[in-house]
Design goal:
The complex is a heterodimer. By secondary structure, chain A is α+β, with helices and mostly antiparallel strands. Chain A folds into 4 domains: 1-32; 40-44 and 178-284, no CATH class; 78-171, Nuclear Transport Factor 2, Chain: A (Roll), CATH 3.10.450.40; 326-627, no CATH class. Helices cover 16% and strands 37% of the residues of chain A. Chain A has 10 helices and 35 strands. In chain A, the strands form 5 sheets. In chain A, strands 12, 13, 14, 15, 16, 17, 18, 23, 26, 29, 30 and 31 form a 12-stranded antiparallel sheet that branches. In chain A, strand 13 and strand 14 (309-316) form a beta hairpin. Chain A is globular, with a radius of gyration of 31 Å. Chain B is mainly beta. Chain B has a domain at 43-253: 6 Propeller (Neuraminidase), CATH 2.120.10.30. In chain B, 12% of the residues lie in helices and 40% in strands. Chain B has helices spanning 5-33, 51-55, 122-125, and strands at residues 63-65, 75-78, 84-86, 96-102, 108-113, 128-132, 139-144, 158-164, 169-174, 186-191, 197-202, 206-214, 217-224, 229-236, 239-240, 245-249, 255-264, 267-274, 291-298, 303-308. In chain B, the strands form 5 sheets. In chain B, strands 12, 13, 14, 15 and 16 form a 5-stranded antiparallel sheet that branches. In chain B, strands 4-5-6-7 form a 4-stranded antiparallel sheet. Chain B has a 4-stranded antiparallel sheet with strand order 8-9-10-11, with no helix packed on it. Chain B is elongated, with a radius of gyration of 24 Å. The chains are: A alpha+beta, B mainly beta. At the A-B interface, helix 1, helix 9 and strand 17 of A face helix 1 of B.
Amino acid sequence: MSKELKIAFIILLLGVTGLSVYWFTGVNPTQKKPIEPRERIILPNHKATLYLELPIIQSYLEDVKKRIEHGNAILPLEAKELDTSGMKAQAVLLKNSNFLSDTKDSNGNLQHNDMMTIRPAIVSVLSQKSQERCHVHKCYQALKYNFVTNTTTRAIVDVESLEVLEVKRFANMQPDISLRLKHIAQEIALNAPEIKKELGDSPEFKDMSMANVRGSLNNSACENKNHLCVSPTFSYHDKEEALWAIIDLSDLKLAAAKWAGLGKTSTPACIGERSLQNRQIMENFCQKDTVHEESNWKISYRITGSDGLEVIDAWFNKERVLKSAKIVDWHVAYKAKEGASSLDDSIDSYVDGRRVEYVKGDNDTFFFGYNDAMGCPMFSTSVVLPFNAPRINPIIKEGKKVGFSLLQDYRNPKWPMACNYRYENRFEFYANGSFRVVGVNKGRGCGKNAIYRPVMRIDMEVSDQEAFYAYEQNGSKGWRQWLVEARDFQKDATIYAKDKYLYKITSKSEPTKGYYVEPNRGQFTKGNRGDNATIFVTLHKENEGEQDLMTLGSCCKLSEEGVERYLEKREDIDGKNIVFWYVPRVRNDAREGHEYCWADTVLEDGNLKVKVWPCDVGPMFVPISKEGI
Amino acid sequence: MRRYVPVIISILIVFIATIVVINLKSNNKEILNIANIGEFKRIKTCAIQPLFLSKLKIPQPIAIDLSQQQYRGVAFLFGPNLMQSVHPKSWTRFDHFSSYILDQKGHMYLTPMPYITISPNTFTFQKNIYTLNSHSGKLSIWMSIDEVKAGANNPFGLIALDYDCDDNSLWVSAIDESSYSESRGVIYHIDVDSKKILQKVEGFDALSVKLLKSNRGKYLLVGSARDNGLYRYEIKGKQLSNIPAKVLELSDFNERIRKITIARDNTLRLETIPFAYTLVAETGEDSTIRENYYAIWSPTLLKWKIEKIK
């Protein structure tokens, strides 16, 4: 055997041995340890209306409005996006009754549609019959999207005979977007304050790609799959990470953003706005407390499992004011004027899929309704979920900042559809030391006769030894101290101290140290109809609401608020740590021109617009030192 | 120069073989990443319908309703368009149920579910397996697992179950101990006659369970409550393997597999819901938030094809 043959043999032998070892033990190219992405979620904290100031959006909305005013529901593609055949196809489709047949609602109102793409047809989308035609003729496929019904329509046009061959509709599906919408999405991403903050003041166009422009009909990543969304991405390959911005093109706003690795599975397209929100809220507001300092206030807050947003510690000028303030429940009751006698107690009753509780009233009336808990979006007994993270906003009065508010938005995901609810928990802190606990109801609920009763629990820290007073209503014009746990009806009060205050919580030893309670009688917000509250004062006990409270009482028994159970022993509260409960009672109104605690959806300029008539409830707490005794 | 030809050829052979082997290994690994449960058939179950339905002369077809849309607890629907029902008031006393299974004698076993409003008994109810007696139609607590403790931070307890015709046992999952950061679900294997817990496997939140036999063995399929995946445990000698392996995943990350059925040979039907360990109630015109899929296993391609059922 020659030397060369021996070498060849050795090479083969070594090769086979090496490959055998590799096959059974070697590192697989697909087994490379993935780089752990630096995941961080950013939720919008600015009003979406700021994007309406962008010229590109103004011009787009103006064009949509003009088209609608002239009786055309579809915003066509601009000439620069089309070749000659595409223009012909568009012209044919804009006159085709079948293609246009889903552009009006049942009342004949036009709905906003955008033509998204018009391109040469590909075989895979053609029916057998169209394939035969398109084999000999030039065919184009067009996609349009209806923003109101979230439906995509695909049409096939023979651009030689100018004939529409096929029209197919895909409900709850979104198409690839037009160049114009792509530019709008990029502009929103580049101008979003949250993105600017992440990337420095001027995010650059060159860093942005639109990898997530839809290539096929897909489910949307935002607004529970009901909106058209895309994800412009700022990629930084050197760091192997990218900032994904989810842009909602139905609402023209930033929906969420996320820093993630460049791997496929961590892109927002796979996750969606809702789950990003849930994770952000869980990790930052459900599992830890957040501290905020402003206007001489220092507050800590968190989102609870079922008691909404809770301020757990509040200090003003380095003096502790609050140990806890929260809204533990919203009781919702609806009044039926007749039918109590025919109610069948043996079976459960449901309204829109939700089991309801019934309480019989007088004269054949009855009440039915629910108890809605607000809380963390995961691992909780919450029924109404937090949307976006808690926000801090300045309170401006007569052009001047007088304090700040902390608020959390809670919604049923399908609000404002019937039997879905939206509440806002808001805490207002003023530079003069006053504060207000506010519950805001934004409808819509199941009907026009709703009575809402949020149960507010406020544990003040005026002193180790506290005293509670109510303003006398019997004409003696003075403060009367409560020595035992009790209840009172603000709605029955006619006389107020300084024409504002009905109660006060003070230090037992220092009567000037403490807070007046100023119930809402409509003075805080224009058009407000007051609280008609029932109040309770109880001795502080750990198991009476310090931790998360489950449903407190009946939704519909209007003679009780649920807190009564803590009054049974009528315990001594003089000089003790007390808890103040405040339960407003507000009735909604759906009459046109009188709407209150109500929401509605209307078609305006071709797009759905949500109209809200909020009602706010809750008392103001004013330092006695500011007002004097 | 000619004398070097064998050397050059050998180098070329090794080079080409290297490329082939690397490719083969990559492809093989991709296939191995999916747990292969083999080929399976739709077989007739040993379970029968409760006998009291025949005594009551309830005509077929009969549907079992746990939807909570019309009836609390369990109800049997029958008649034209399933508009008639059997639903005595006593069947509401344990509130709502999330899943059921029938055994070979027609006894029904049910797992509980918290639903929208929390009542004083809601959390206590979540630790029980309930039974509807085949002969009497009496609903009662069949077994309590006291270590299952639902609470405000996770209102769910026992959640899904399946009946094993081979050894007259139940496979039941609980998710009460799980939190946002930890998956601490438990799968219990319980002997029906003795009510003894035969095995307990910890660490997986199963929102649905389904026994399946294939040409590769016997498996417990489980739908994860935490992601969009379907997993399997291997069952050997009545014992569950400790490590679940992923069988497939759905395209939508937000969906969770709530119900698994064997639709036909090599085809699973998967019902999904959004699930976040809360009591969220979504209502509206399109109040159905469930999606259904066929997962079709190709024994030749060793791949799943997922089809949405419209």
